[in-house]
Each structure stands twice: as structure tokens, then as C-alpha cells.
Amino acid sequence: MSSTAPVPRFPGGTAVSGLRVYDWESVDGLCGGSPHLHTVSSEAYLVTAGRGEVHTLSMAGAEEHSLAAGALLWFSPGTVHRLVNTEDLTLTVIMSNAGLPEAGDAVLTFPRHIVQDPDLYAEHAVLPRDVEESVLAAASRRRRDLALEGYAQLHTSVLTDGPGALAEFHRAAARLVRPRVERWKELWEANVLAQVRATGQALEELAEGSAASLAGAAVARGGRRTGEGYGMCGRLTTWEDARL
Question: Which domain holds residue 232?
């Protein structure tokens, strides 16, 4: 196996990470992560160990979905989701549009006055860098608790007024990410669209009887990065070249 073999990319720009959902208890007695939505990317959870739930707010209203080893659940952009950890919940997270979630595609459910103020939102959403782990963990937990505060308000609105209550939050989320969209387009074209075009070219070549698209046959391995990061919902494990 060549150590320099390029990673075979997937149309859709798939990204993979491991997630150990936070076991921090919140004010409502549940343990878990920060509620949020993605404005562009779809997401899937493949449960590898433990038990828990994911609570969602979507056009279907407020729902709770049980999670156990072997379960697979995915949701589309605009779906607010909150992971709840009841017993060592561990997931493989699969995202579309690799590069966009890392570039700010996710919007946390902070209280309304924060979500409506881009500067205030950024102040609370960004975690400190180059600090001790205890400081980073505390900041992550504060961010989670603030997102749960806004989530409780939004959840009540959806229960009272129906899924249409999500519309205001969707509009606020769209305003927050709008300044990043031009950069997102560049990332999307270089990653997602490039792979779609490569598949289209391969189909054209095969239709002509050419095997040119198979000439790069290779195997690649992604090295696991050391340590765990602090994500929105838990401690993250990532791999080099995990943007497929």
C-alpha cells in the first residue's frame, strides 16, 4: 500500500468523526450536548455504543428519538437537534459538505437576543484557544448551557404554536451565516462539486468503453489524530484526511 495514495473522495463531500457525547448534567436534569442546526449540511448519527436520545425540532414538530448501538438516524438542514446521553453514548458522525460545518454552518440555539446580534453571537459561540483543558471544558459547558436556555424557549414555542415557530429562528440563522456564504461556495466548488464532476466524467468514459477512471486504483489510510477536541455535543475524535 502506498502511503502517499490520495484519499478517494465521495460526491457530497462526506466527513467522518467520532463523538463521545457529554455527560454533563444540565438544568433540566438531562446530560448531553448543545442544541443546534446546520444551515446547509445534512448529518447522520451511527450509534456505536451506549444509549441515549436525540431531541429534534423540525417541520414535524418536537420529537424524541431513542438511540442505542446500531441505530442510524439522520436529519436535514434546519432541523434543531439536541443529543441526550443516558449511558456512555458514543457515535460516528457523518456530515455532508465537508468543510462547511467547520466554517460555521452550525448555528447554536442561543436565546433570541443573542442570535439576533452577530457580534454577541460570535462572542458566546467561539471557544478560547491555547488554554488549559479545564478552561476549555468550562467554556464548552457554558456554551452548552446557554444554547439549552434558548432551546427551552424555542421548544416551548414549537409546542404552543406548531413547527411554524421555527421560522423566526431559521431567519435569524440565515442572517448570521450570510457573510460566510461566498467563502462556502468556494469550499463547495473545490470539494463537493469537484467530486460530482469527477463522477460525471467517469460515467462518460465508461459509456465510451474507456477504463481511464480506474487507473488511479489505490488504498489510503487516515491516521487518527491524538487527543480529543471539544465539539458542540461532545468530545471529538478526528482523522487526517477524514473529509471524503
Answer: 15-207+217-237
